[in-house]
What we know:
heterodimer; A: 256 residues
Amino acid sequence: xxxxxxxxxxxxxxxxxxxxxxxxxxxxxxxxxxxxxxxxxxxxxxxxxxxxxxxxxxxxxxxxxxxxxxxxxxxxxxxxxxxxxxxxxxxxxxxxxxxxxxxxxxxxxxxxxxxxxxxxxxxxxxxxxxxxxxxxxxxxxxxxxxxxxxxxxxxxxxxxxxxxxxxxxxxxxxxxxxxxxxxxxxxxxxxxxxxxxxxxxxxxxxxxxxxxxxxxxxxxxxxxxxxxxxxxxxxxxxxxxxxxxxxxxxxxxxxx
Amino acid sequence: xxxxxxxxxxxxxxxxxxxxxxxxxxxxxxxxxxxxxxxxxxxxxxxxxxxxxxxxxxxxxxxxxxxxxxxxxxxxxxxxxxxxxxxxxxxxxxxxxxxxxxxxxxxxxxxxxxxxxxxxxxxxxxxxxxxxxxxxxxxxxxxxxxxxxxxxxxxxxxxxxxxxxxxxxxxxxxxxxxxxxxxxxxxxxxxxxxxxxxxxxxxxxxxxxxxxxxxxxxxxxxxxxxxxxxxxxxxxxxxxxxxxxxxxxxxxxxxxxxxxxxxxxxxxxxxxxxxxxxxxxxxxxxxxxxxxxxxxxxxxxxxxxxxxxxxxxxxxxxxxxxxxxxxxxxxxxxxxxxxxxxxxxxxxxxxxxxxxxxxxxxxxxxxxxx
Lengths: 256, 370
């Protein structure tokens, strides 16, 4: 089953073409990577999918629902979760609250029920707390529930961000450079970790990454972008031997 | 040793949550008893009512300026709308002379009217933030003021004199309890957490499924609703309202209470409003005179004369200066980003505790790193 389809997506920033003719077909359960040099338009694609930017042209569909024109919270509520290249936690809030906030769309009660503490309010708040604590336990962050997010060490902040993205109950998870700032040893653990959450939460994953080790290690399919254009598409082996990709990364000329 | 005993007492008190409803009941009892038996003189009773009204104002402004992290200067405008609506109702529409029980309805109507105008300010907040939104709120305040000045049917610049004194200590206390309870419920709901997340990072908040527009609507509406309530109570204490009462200085007063008490804190709003109101009363010439009366006459007389003449002017200097100083040197105020534990729902306190028995983890889970 195709989960996410992008057809002829174009996006301009003023006169600059950030993404041109982007096509994508992501099947349920797949783990796909998008790679490319800096400024190739990778994060822009995430922003187009999640509604932060509105695609200038083209169509993006998630399970048959058109995403272009929807607001980010509407798209997220369709169960698309994401993390950010530079961690964007709610820094001054507690670890628990970071995860609880991501339950907004799932919390099923009206403002009036909240203001007067009636109806579904108590039950839903309980459920949100239980689910948040369950997630924190899975990620071994439970003991830090009351800690302010900004006080966590870098690695734990990354982990919390993934926990928060999973709190929206995603079917599709977008990971924006999950290995940024990690050493080779940590990347090995991260690779195992991504495989594990994929199975545990039954996820389809689309990830952006620079670290070839991670990309080649776990992605089943890759897309390579350069200056907004898709220059290659295929399995990691195919990509590794693609002359266009080598050129984009290393420049023209004989490569040793 | 002494301080550890103090800490222990505080810890003990924090757990005794059943005290809060009892204190509220005692408060109600006192609110009835004080005017009934004249436990304090009229002036002190008046100050108590102002403290209550200011608590409502500070707590409601804190929703926008503290929890949401915007800077609204419009609060006096919402207050004016509530004050005028309720005053006109009690003077021209509702037969409050025969049925004084209708007074809360007038106050409620004032709050609702203010909430409607709150929506108008909420709309620009969708697209605008920070300094620009602050300017919009300032413009809103000025528009409200000049609208009132130019409608002759409601007294124009002369205002409305002769409002009945319907606000009583029990009513003030009632509305303080209601507003704090509702604001607290809001803050600890998914909507309130949404407001907090907007302050932290609006885009991340949208991407965590928070409907930021809806949340902003709610925050502005609730904030202006209670400002309107406070305005209604205020009009019926002061017994005279005019556009000048609700100018930028009134907004500044409320801002000082919020930042002095501390942002994003209901407890802070209570402390800030109380301390500031009392300080302001101490800066009145008559209070100053009373405080200095122990001085020998040759010192007292010139000082007293000076205060009577100039203290009003100095107030305008001292208070804005206080705001600037507080924001620079004490940005968190008395209890910024902290809360009395009694106000935090038990559910929330428990959820933040470390529970050892809730170990449901997978032993093979690779996320377990040293």
